[in-house]
Amino acid sequence: MSMKSNTNISTDQLALLALKTHVNSDLLSTNWSTATSICNWIGVTCGSRQQRVTALHLFGINLSGTIPPHLGNLSFFILLDIRNNNFYGALPIELAKLHRLKSLWLDNNNFNGEIPSWFGSISKLQNLSLSGKKFIGVIPSSLCSLSKLELLYLDYNNLQGQIPVAIRNLSKGTIPKEIKNLTMLKILYLGINDFQGPIPTNIVNLTLLEFLDFSSNNLTGHGGMISKYSNPHIKQPIVSSLRIICTTVT
């Protein structure tokens, strides 16, 4: 193994050891040991070719702590799954350096503050899941620049305001530059927040959209208004495959 490879692996190891010191976990304390390769640590996946850390699967293993900025040094990282734990505090901006990242699953933790606008700079992101009652403020418009995004879960938070202009303006019949990049979107959960304003009826222009949830907000309009629209680019109305939940909007 070359000196450069050793250096890169050491960078990954230091990043994971930083995470270990930021959480309370008997499991990581015993399993994440420098006596063994990081690729054999629980929850860690390494690429077969480069032997670099590509994923962390730490779903529901009773971790409690904060996310260190060092995770931004995992340059081959494509997936982070820390759902159903007790992470808290703010997400470090250094995660914006993870340009290979495709999936970010942060549901059901205790993160606080607003949804970071720098999520929009992770250009390869396909899955972004932030459910869990803790995020506040508005949806940053920068999310609309994620051209590869297929799944977006923002339900069960304390989000307010209107649906971002880049999405809401679909009701005017044109697709603004910011929203046309979301054509890969398949799932959009915005339920159980405090959004206001009109339901963006022409959201049906997102031709791959399969599931849409606006329920339990303060939006005006109703789900039926969306079902009246068809997409000119497909043979059948998009509502033939689109399930709409709008149980409490007026």
UniProtKB/TrEMBL annotation:
Q: Which residues form the signal peptide?
A: none
Instruction: Tell me if Metal-binding is a UniProt keyword of this record.
Output: no
Mind listing the UniProt keywords for this protein, alphabetically?
Answer: Glycoprotein, Leucine-rich repeat, Membrane, Receptor, Repeat, Signal, Transmembrane, Transmembrane helix
Residue ranges annotated for the Leucine-rich repeat-containing N-terminal plant-type domain, each copy included: 10-46
Looking at the keywords, is Transmembrane helix present?
yes
The UniProt entry lists membrane topology as: Single-pass type I membrane protein
Q: Which compartments is it annotated to reside in?
A: Membrane
UniProt similarity note: Belongs to the RLP family.
The name of this protein is: EF-TU receptor
Identify the species of origin: Theobroma cacao (Cacao)
